[in-house]
């Protein structure tokens, strides 16, 4: 089992700047020259960005780190089940920058820029250098929408990646949200702590300080992403009594083995991150090579039951296509036998009959 505390390993060549083009990838030795024409076609559809901190973890282009972020020719092929807006963000956006799917919470997307562009991202049709930041007027309209919808108690900042904002702009948003008495909880979902940890510096950590219940949710898919630098960035937030949760996507070739998933869950707990969600892959265009069937995902988690602490146990969820919300799809340990008694399957696979319940 890979240790969660090993130092990051070096990539094929030393990388000192963010890789953004096919030429950059060729120069770094991460793609073969024969793929260049096909990858230029991919680049016309989807952005590429791999910061040095993340690139340095790539050992081979198709290892669990490289596979997530290096473009692949198959991205230009769209399967029948794939959708440019797989979870219905567009249809549920009352004003730019807001998505309202659940009664008591809303997404605030202040920008559509990320530190790195994951090849499986469900917003890949929207994010990229051209996505930009909400201008002052658009941000004001989004905040006004939140201000006037007093049934909203939680704001989830996503994007893009909110930690790509400047500390000044982040602080301004925090101040605005603090001025809304009905907003009790703020969540920030980010890849920055593992992708570009230096960006989450003391100034940004200070900007996140708020009188509201603040939570940071870090997107991490493989144990090797939690480098000493990433853990140091996360600790800057934790030192301000901001709890940190983890979310991951179940990905073929990245974390779809019992060993890789166990390492990932243990690495999060070792970094004082509570695993929160394990997402079933959303069917965005060109992402079929990452797909793991739901039943396989259920068997994978079931195989870890009893092997890892409950602290490390995420909720396995499916975001129902079309914007109908997330539902848990965890393994089912209960069924009713022919005698009407409930039967439960233990972690070792044995079946046990429960006494008939009263009522």
Automatic annotation (TrEMBL):
> Which parts pass through the membrane?
none
What does the record list as coiled-coil region(s)?
Answer: none
Please provide the record's keywords in A-Z order: 4Fe-4S, Iron, Iron-sulfur, Isomerase, Metal-binding, Pyridoxal phosphate, S-adenosyl-L-methionine
Q: Which residues bind [4Fe-4S] cluster?
A: 114, 118, 121
Query: Where are the N6-(pyridoxal phosphate)lysine residues found in this chain?
Result: 326
> Is this entry keyworded Iron?
yes
Cite the Radical SAM core domain residue spans from the record.
100-312
Molecular function (GO) terms for this protein are: 4 iron, 4 sulfur cluster binding; isomerase activity; metal ion binding
What's one Pfam family the UniProt record gives for this protein?
LAM_C
The family database entries (SUPFAM superfamilies) matched by this protein are listed as: Radical SAM enzymes
The family note in this entry says: Belongs to the radical SAM superfamily. KamA family.
**Protein name per UniProt:** Lysine-2,3-aminomutase-like protein
- Which taxonomic lineage does the organism of this UniProt entry have? Bacteria, Pseudomonadati, Pseudomonadota, Alphaproteobacteria, Acetobacterales
């Amino acid at each position: 089992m890979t240790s969660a505390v090993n130092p990051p390993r070096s990539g094929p060549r030393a990388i000192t700047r963010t890789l953004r083009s096919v030429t950059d990838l060729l120069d770094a030795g991460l793609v073969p020259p024969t793929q260049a024409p096909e990858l230029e076609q991919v680049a016309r559809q989807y952005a590429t960005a791999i910061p040095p901190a993340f690139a340095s973890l790539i050992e081979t282009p198709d290892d669990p780190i490289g596979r997530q972020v290096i473009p692949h020719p198959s991205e230009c092929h769209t399967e029948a089940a794939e959708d440019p807006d797989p979870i219905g963000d567009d249809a549920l956006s009352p004003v730019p920058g807001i998505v309202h799917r659940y009664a008591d919470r809303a997404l605030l997307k202040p920008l559509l820029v990320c530190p790195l562009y994951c090849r499986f991202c469900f917003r890949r049709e929207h994010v990229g250098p051209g996505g930009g930041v909400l201008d002052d007027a658009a941000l004001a309209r989004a905040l006004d929408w939140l201000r006037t919808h007093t049934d909203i108690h939680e704001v989830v900042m996503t994007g893009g990646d909110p930690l790509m904002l400047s500390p000044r702009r982040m602080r301004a948003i925090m101040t605005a949200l603090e001025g809304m008495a009905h907003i009790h909880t703020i969540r920030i979902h980010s890849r920055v702590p593992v992708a570009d940890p230096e960006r989450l510096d003391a100034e940004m950590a200070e900007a996140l300080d708020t009188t509201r219940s603040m939570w940071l949710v870090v997107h991490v898919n493989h144990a090797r992403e939690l480098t000493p630098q990433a853990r140091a960035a996360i600790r800057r937030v934790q030192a301000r009594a901001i709890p940190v949760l983890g979310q991951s996507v179940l990905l073929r070739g990245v974390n779809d083995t019992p060993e890789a998933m166990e390492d990932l869950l243990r690495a999060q707990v070792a970094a004082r991150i509570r695993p929160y969600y394990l997402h079933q892959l959303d069917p965005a265009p060109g992402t079929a090579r990452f797909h793991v069937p739901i039943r396989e995902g259920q068997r994978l988690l079931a195989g870890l039951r009893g092997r890892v602490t409950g602290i490390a146990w995420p909720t396995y969820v499916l975001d129902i296509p079309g914007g109908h919300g997330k539902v848990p799809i965890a393994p089912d340990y209960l069924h009713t036998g022919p005698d009407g008694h409930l039967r439960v399957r233990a972690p070792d696979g044995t079946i046990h009959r429960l006494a008939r319940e009263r009522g």
